[in-house]
Amino acid sequence: MSQTTGCKNLAKSIFLKSLLGQFTGDAYSAGIEEVERVGVRLRVYSVAKTVADCFKHRNKIGLDVALEALKDAWRTRKASADDLWQHAQSAASPT
C-alpha cells in the first residue's frame, strides 16, 4: 500500500470518528495506536476498532460503509479475527 493510500485511509478514519461524536472511558481509550506519518507521531484508532465502531453506528453512516470497512480490513489483513471480535464485544457494551 502506498503512503498516499495510507494517509487517505487515516483521513477517513479521523472523519468517521468526528462524524460519530464523542467517546468517553473505555470506548475512547480502547484500540488507540501510535503511528508515524511524515515525521509526525499520531495517535489513531486501530483498524479493528474503526470497523467495530462502523457497525455500532451503522444507522448513522450506513451499512454499506460498515461492510466495506470490514471487507477492506479483512482483504488487506490489517485486522485479525480476534482483534475484530474483541472490539466488537467492547463496542456492543453501552458507552
Features of the shown structure:
95 residues, alpha+beta, two-stranded antiparallel sheet, 2 strands, globular
Q: Would you write up a description of this structure?
A:
- It is a single chain.
- The chain has 95 residues and is an alpha+beta fold.
- It has one domain.
- It has 6 helices and 2 strands.
- It has a two-stranded antiparallel sheet.
- Strand 1 and strand 2 (40-45) form a beta hairpin.
- The longest helix is centred in the N-terminal third of the chain and has 18 residues, at 3-20.
- The termini are far apart.
TL;DR?
This protein has 95 residues and is an alpha+beta fold. The chain contains 6 helices and 2 strands; from the N terminus they run H-H-E-E-H-H-H-H. The protein has a two-stranded antiparallel ribbon with strand order 1-2.
Total count of strands: 2
Largest sheet: 2 strands, antiparallel
* Uncertain spans: none
What is the domain tally? 1
| Helix amount | 55-70%
Q: How many helices? A: 6
Sheet with most strands: strand arrangement: 1-2
What would you report as the Rg, rounded to the nearest angstrom? 13 Å
Would you tell me the overall average pLDDT? 78
> Pairing-aware structural class of the strands and helices?
alpha+beta
Distance between the termini: 34 Å
Q: What pattern of helices and strands is seen along the backbone? A: HHEEHHHH
**Overall 3D geometry?**
globular
Fraction in beta strands: 5-15%
Assembly state: single chain
